[in-house]
Amino acid sequence: MIIKAKNLTKVYGKRERVVALKDINLEIEEGEIVAILGPSGCGKTTLLNCLSGLDELTSGSVEVLGKSLTGMNEEEKTKFRSVYMGFIFQFFNLIPVLNAIENVELPLLISKKLKVSEVRKRALDWLEKLHIAHRAKAYPSEMSGGEQQRVAIARALINNPKIVWADEPTGALDTKNSEEIMDIILNMNRELNTTFVIVTHDPNVAKKANRIIRMDSGRILSEGV
Question: Which residues form the ABC transporter domain (predicted)?
Answer without folding.
Answer: 3-225
